[in-house]
């Protein structure tokens, strides 16, 4: 039986009558981050699909400082599994170590060759986050350069994949503005067919397409 002194007085205003739950009452947690974005950030390198950043940089050398600053200070870019770039405007005189954004990224690139009919510009590149896939588990499937298509295809066996898949194939493609779209798509389909049949059980997941 409650003591008379603890029974609320009905004559008092309702604003001052509060439910007394005591010190043992469990408080509602505040500030918990449970959104989809934060859950994905927590397992950035164990997602079912790889995170890919695709950009047409139009000369990478003069953007290296900004590029490395974004890797250092922007978590979403730093945790990307793949950075795919087109139009690097590089040549064999520039080593891959010179354009490496951070020590935990490996660089796989294909510069424009004389087969394209031009001596400057172009080029495609993939920078792979080693936290997602070790460099030893990366195989180059296709390197193609023609007047209509520049293609780099890599096969990955990352640390984490859904059990339905054994590997991932990523294609980075650049189609010059003066190229024939039909011819470029024909060359890409042929290269994709060859890489898919010679690499055993592989899963083609995505590719970059860039046209000005």
UniProtKB/TrEMBL annotation:
InterPro entries: Endo/exonu/phosph_ase_sf (IPR036691). Residues 1-37 are annotated as: Disordered. It comes from the Eukaryota. Gene3D superfamilies: Endonuclease/exonuclease/phosphatase. Residues 24-37 have a biased composition (Basic residues). This is Uncharacterized protein. It comes from Electrophorus voltai. The lineage of its organism: Eukaryota, Metazoa, Chordata, Craniata, Vertebrata.
């Amino acid at each position: 039986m409650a003591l008379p002194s603890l029974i609320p007085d009905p004559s008092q205003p309702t604003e001052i009558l509060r439910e007394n739950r005591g010190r043992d009452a469990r408080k509602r947690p505040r500030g918990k981050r449970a959104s989809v974005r934060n859950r994905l950030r927590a397992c950035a390198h164990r997602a079912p699909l790889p995170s890919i950043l695709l950009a047409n940089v139009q000369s990478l050398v003069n953007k290296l400082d900004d590029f490395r600053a974004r890797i250092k200070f922007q978590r979403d870019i730093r945790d990307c599994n793949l950075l795919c770039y087109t139009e690097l405007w590089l040549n064999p005189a520039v080593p891959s170590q010179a354009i490496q954004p951070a020590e935990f990224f490996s660089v796989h690139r294909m510069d424009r060759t004389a087969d394209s009919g031009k001596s400057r510009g172009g080029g495609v590149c993939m920078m792979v986050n080693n936290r997602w896939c070790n460099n030893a588990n990366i195989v180059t499937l296709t390197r193609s350069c023609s007047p209509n298509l520049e293609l780099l295809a890599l096969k990955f066996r990352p640390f984490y994949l859904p059990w339905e898949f054994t590997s991932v194939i990523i294609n980075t493609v650049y189609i010059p503005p003066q190229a024939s779209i039909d011819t470029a798509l024909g060359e890409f389909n042929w290269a994709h067919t060859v890489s898919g049949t010679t690499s055993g059980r592989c899963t083609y997941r995505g590719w970059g397409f860039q046209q000005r």
